[in-house]
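User: My instructor asked us to take a sequence, write out its structure as tokens, and then describe one feature of it. I'm not sure where to start. Here is the sequence I was given:
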Amino acid sequence: MIKFFRKIRYNLMEQNKTGKYFKYAIGEIVLVVIGILIALQINNWNQKRLERIEEKLILTNLKEDFEEAITEFEFLNDIRNNIISAATIIYNKQPEEVTNYSSKYLDSLFFRTMSGPTYNNQAGSLNLLLTSGKINLIAKENLKKKLIQWPGDVADMIEDEVAHFDLYLQYSAILDNYICWNDVFKTKLANDVGLRFGAERIKSLSEGGRLTSDYKAILENKVFLNMLNRRAVFCQLTKNETIELIKKAQDIISIIDKELSK
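Assistant: Let's start with the prediction itself. The structure tokens for your sequence are:
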């Protein structure tokens, strides 16, 4: 094609048709520029197409991450509800009422308080998206904003979880003075927990009957009761924060579904 245009120019020069030659040369330049612009447009269109393909893959992975987060949040709130429920029952029991209940019932009740739920926060796709700078591939500005805000929202909840876990460790230390862990871990609830995670039934060292639980004494301990109350409050706090996170995650998933359906 270039040789063809060059031949036409040579013929015009040989025929001393200078005016036509310059007009033709200008026209040829215009055609070249138009060709370049078209090539750039095609390249730009292709780049946009590849970015949209990558965006859909990112959105699909993000949706899976947020669905998993919701599942874990709901699981953690089930644990918190269990702690709050057991703590409320224990807190309202009077020391003199202990003899009215079987030791197995009390062991099971206290076992329900033996947990410090924490979020794993394994948002792999979002972390990669934010650290790689590919967040700009997300075309929906509203979604992009929510994704950027998400780690901060989770961090606020985790901060309270950490505070609660520290409180849980102090709580456990108090129980060591009053509770026979062998009895607690022999409860059906404790064994069901072990089986749920595919492990063998929970076993503890044999203490030969040297240890017994003194539930009356622990219910008379003001430090324990205050600690139990604070734990229930922290569980309620992190539960409420997690409920808000679930709502935000569901909102993000809803936006992602709309983007994927385009």
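For the description part of your assignment, you could build on this observation: Residues 18-92 form the longest helix (75 residues). Try explaining in your own words what that tells you about the chain.
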